[in-house]
TrEMBL record:
It is found in: Cell membrane. This is Receptor-like serine/threonine-protein kinase. It catalyses: L-seryl-[protein] + ATP = O-phospho-L-seryl-[protein] + ADP + H(+); L-threonyl-[protein] + ATP = O-phospho-L-threonyl-[protein] + ADP + H(+). It is a single-pass type I membrane protein. The chain crosses the membrane at residues 454-476. Residues 819-857 are annotated as: Disordered. It comes from the Eukaryota. GO terms for cellular component: plasma membrane. Residues 537-823 form the Protein kinase domain.
Amino acid sequence: MGSKRRCFRVSLLIIFFFFRCCNTTTDTITQNRYISDASNGSVVSSNGNFKLGFFSPGKSENRYVGIWFNKVPLQTVVWVANRDNPLKNRTGAFKITDDGNIAVFYSGNDRLPLWSTNVSMPAATSRNSTAKLLPSGNLVLTTENGSDHTETVEWQSFDYPTDSYWAGMKFGLDERTGLNRILTSWKSDDDPAKGEFTVRIDSRGVPQIFMYKGSAAYFRVGPWNGLTLSGVRKVSPQNTQGIDVAFANYSFVNNRDEVYVIFKEPNPSTFSRMVLKPLGTVERQIWYLDIQQWYQFYVAPQDRCDHYGWCGASTLCNNENTVACACLPGFEYSKEDLSCVEKRKAGTCGKGEGEGFIKLAHVKLPDARTCRLFSNMSLEECEMECLKSCNCTGYASADVVEGRGCFAWYGVLNDIKQYSQDEQDFYIRVDAIELAANMIRKKSKGFEGVKRTLVIIFVSVALGAILFIFCSYYLWRKHAKSKDLKEKQRYRDMLFLDSTTNFSNEDTCNEKSNEKSKNMELTFYDLDTIVAATDNFSIAKKLGQGGYGPVYKGKLPNGQEIAVKRLSSNSGQGITEFKNEVLLTAKLQHRNLVKLLGCCIDNEEKMLVYEYMPNKSLDYFIFDETRKSLLDWKRRHEIIVGIARGILYLHQDSRLRIIHRDLKTSNILLDDELNPKISDLGTARIFAGKQKEANTRTVVGTFGYMSPEYALDGQFSVKSDVFSFGVLLLEIISGKKNMGFFNDYPSSNLIQEVWKLWNEDRGSEIIDSSILRDSCPIHEVMRCVQVGLLCIQDKATDRPTMSSVVFMLSNEANLPPPIQPTFSIQRSHDQNNTDSTNTGNKSPSVNELTVTELRAR
Ligand SMILES: *[C@@H]1O[C@H](CO)[C@@H](O)[C@H](O)[C@H]1NC(C)=O
Ligand SMILES: *[C@@H]1O[C@H](CO)[C@@H](O)[C@H](O)[C@H]1NC(C)=O
Ligand SMILES: *[C@@H]1O[C@H](CO)[C@@H](O)[C@H](O)[C@H]1NC(C)=O
Ligand SMILES: *[C@@H]1O[C@H](CO)[C@@H](O)[C@H](O)[C@H]1NC(C)=O
Ligand SMILES: *[C@@H]1O[C@H](CO)[C@@H](O)[C@H](O)[C@H]1NC(C)=O
Ligand SMILES: *[C@@H]1O[C@H](CO)[C@@H](O)[C@H](O)[C@H]1NC(C)=O
Ligand SMILES: *[C@@H]1O[C@H](CO)[C@@H](O)[C@H](O)[C@H]1NC(C)=O
Ligand SMILES: *[C@@H]1O[C@H](CO)[C@@H](O)[C@H](O)[C@H]1NC(C)=O
């Protein structure tokens, strides 16, 4: 009996504690109820999505009050109260003070808050203030008027974001109150104090979003063009879905009172945020409850051209070109000023007749702080409007969807980035001479080098020539047919003068018993065959965009699948490179090299036909958050060894000594069994006999993979390929891209990052988390990392040869310790020029290599 009663009492007690416990997970803090760190106090929003409490970030011991996603097991803090003033021990409290504000302080030390909402309220109402964590994750401080019970919002955390904004939160400004909600990065992952990067909306001119490093503009997107913020782009051309997911539920609001962006949660089973990371990247992260994982859909800035004013004023930056910077039409590079200067003399505006506009396609619009919006003008009206004012330098559509309204720029044009597709057109104002030159340039390609005076002569001569051409036309027509054939023959002779290659005009091969000549058999395809195979180069068949032109998938009448590389006529690849690639690839046979089936030449058209690789290229896998998990460690190791064997073959096992010069992830294709195949020999060089090193004036290759001696002195050897291989290897292991060596761009300098971690014995942090999960043999991976570090040493002579690399990768022999890679290629001036209206006289030498200086650290 007694025990039964005791049992009953215990149950009562349990029930009592149960209710007490659940009472503690309320969503409000009142005058009488506060939370303290010592008792693990917290408040949770009524829907259970957000939690407010005390936390220690990363490896820090300090305590902060913050808000995080309650249903994401990996604590992701999205808001911090006392970010600049941490609690040093666990005696903190978060409560409403006598003046009605909510504050953080050491328990019993109410008079000296570390942080406070700090609003002044009428004394009478302040007694009844309460703080509530709303389902949206907004912490709201309200006061109640005792006489009529109306509530007033005194303060809300949504108005004071830290480094993140999330669904339902306005990021931007309220012109009525002067409130500007800006993001400020954390100092580091362990310290939420205000870092050096901020992101804010700037409403001068036409609203745009700016990232600042300190007080210097660092990165910019905008203005809003009816569809997107100009310059917001997908991560890679293949990752077409990413940007759609990342920005599907965004809206941009711009009215008289407010300018802000806001987004909705993509679906009920996700939590997402936009965050400004400590090293200055904006990232869109989405947590999927069902997969229990963060995915990253957008990261910016993405490359050197995203850096505000990278090339200086009046330039066009195109990251896909080796030399990214070029002067805008109507400007030329001045060696004295080290910048682009206007060709025409000052003050001639409006005097000369026939001014007009040149279209720049696929660009991120220039900095719009000097821009005006004409919301009701068509593009034609805008052109007239722009011509009216001497200061107007260009215009663009303000709404690419509706086609109504335009932006007009006044003054110097800054920060224009050009892409190879998408984005929008910008019309730049030029004088009559430039306009004529542009017209001629368009008609006859490769005319750039001609002097301006020559252009004028050409214009007048052209008129006379028309008559002549007219007369000649009839005669020419008569001979056209036979000339066409002759031309074809000429190309062939030029191409294969020194090769013993046999061509067959049809798909049928010349049967020969001799094995050697059979290997080198190439097919010469008709243009008609290729057009039919690729559905007339339809967009649907496009596989990607290489440096020299688009690549299409095709199917020959016999069912064989092919990849057709169509060399764009204005690509850098002239007949020389074409000849190179055909000749080289035809002679090479190795399981880790892509196989060339044939080529097609028809007047302007030059095309290469390869075997089709169903699995695209390596970058398609390793830099994609979802696809990278398909490549486990075993697979990656096989790929690394395969690439090494392929390069070794090029360097010494083939009859020729070949240096690839442009090894990078997008040039490594994967066959149906994910075997790597090296492609794109267009830039390769053959070495005669024993020659081991050479110099070149035109540095070709890709930033991030170029060895220092090649990037700076144009000196290349087998060791520059070894360097590129080293970078490739580290990218494969880390799943991260090495963007280049910009010392102000630390987040993307993979080499320095790997070296740092390796040196601090934190090697395992280098490894891509998606291969870490399946418990890969760490020592084997570390061995590979060490080989990679050996390959990227500064001095070419220190780097191993490819044969040693292959040996080291497949044997357990002892490896020498790598020497620290110390070089850092940086801009020729400091990044700290404070503002946009950068006159450009400090910018890197435009039209010359952007890599200008070698600096030892
Ligand atoms: C608070 O949480 C910590 C860690 O979870 C635990 O060790 C401690 O006992 C808790 N303290 C109280 C008062 O609940
Ligand atoms: C916690 O730190 C504060 C400030 O340094 C100090 O005043 C207080 O005595 C400390 N409390 C304990 C329990 O250590
Ligand atoms: C509160 O505001 C006053 C005046 O605006 C300022 O002097 C004070 O430093 C602020 N206090 C805190 C804790 O932010
Ligand atoms: C409270 O409400 C009453 C009645 O609406 C109003 O007269 C009074 O000014 C209010 N007090 C405050 C502090 O807003
Ligand atoms: C505070 O709230 C209580 C209950 O809502 C109310 O009775 C009281 O008048 C309020 N006090 C003040 C100063 O507004
Ligand atoms: C978000 O965007 C996706 C894709 O366009 C759409 O299916 C979904 O309905 C949107 N969600 C909301 C809440 O608007
Ligand atoms: C803008 O254009 C619309 C449609 O063409 C027209 O109805 C309206 O009056 C115009 N507004 C102004 C301010 O010109
Ligand atoms: C053009 O520039 C001049 C001098 O810089 C300035 O005085 C004038 O107001 C500008 N005009 C317009 C329309 O911006």
